[in-house]
Amino acid sequence: MADKTQAGGLTHIDAQGSAHMVDVSGKASTDRVAVAEGRVVMRRETLDLILSGNAKKGDVLSTARIAAIMAAKRTHELIPLCHPLMLAKVTVDVEPDTSLPGVRVQASVKTQGQTGVEMEALTAVSVGCLTIYDMIKAVERGVTIEGIRLMEKSGGKSGSYRRQE
To answer: What is the DSSP string of 104-126?
Structure first.
C-alpha cells in the first residue's frame, strides 16, 4: 500500500503522482455504514404537481428511490478507482419538504468489508436528485440540486464521523 504522506495524504495517488486503486487486501473486514443527503429545491407549484401524482413521466418519488438504489449498486462503474462492493443494504428516503419547497433525498448504505461505502451513499443521493430533476424539468428548468454531503459514516480504521451542523 502506498504511503499516504507521499502524495499529500491522498490515498489514490502514488509517490510518482499516478492514480491507482488502493490495495485494501490487508485491511480487516468490518461493518461499514454511510449516510448521505441532498435536496432538490423547486417552486411550490412543481412540488404540488409531484405530490398529486400528475407528473407526465410518472411517479417521481418512487422512480427517484429506485434510481438511487440502482446507482449505489453501480458506483464502482461510475467513479474511477472505487472498489466493487457487496452491499448488504441500501435504504433511500425521498421525502417532500414544503419548507424548501422541494424534496429531500437521504441514502443509507451498509456492507461488511475492507473499504467504506461513503461513495455509494453519495452516488445514490446524487442520482436520486438528478432523477427528480429529469422528471420535472419540462415543468420547471430552474430547479436546484443542493447540499449533497456525507452526514455520517462508521466502521473501518478511521472510525466514526458525524457531520456537525
So the answer is: EEEEEEEEEESS--HHHHHHHHH
CA-to-CA separations, 5 to 21, 65, 125, in angstroms, rounded: 16, 39, 31
- In the predicted model, is pLDDT for residue 5 greater than 80? no
Does residue 6 carry a pLDDT above 80? Answer: no
Cis peptide before 84 (omega within 30 of 0): no
pLDDT of the residue at 1:
40
How far apart are alpha carbons 51 and 45 in whole angstroms? 10
Residues with catalytic annotation?
Answer: 134
Distances (CA, A) of 16 to 6, 8, 25, 37: 9, 12, 22, 35
Q: What are the CA-CA distances from residue 106 to residues 55, 112, 158, 163 (Å)?
A: 22, 21, 23, 14
Measured CA angle at 114 (ends 108, 119), to 5 deg? 40
- Residues 84-94 pLDDT 10s: 999 999 999 99
pLDDT beyond 80 at 115 = yes
The alpha carbon of residue 154 and the mean position of all alpha carbons in its chain are separated, in whole angstroms, by 15
Looking at residue 4, its pLDDT comes to 44
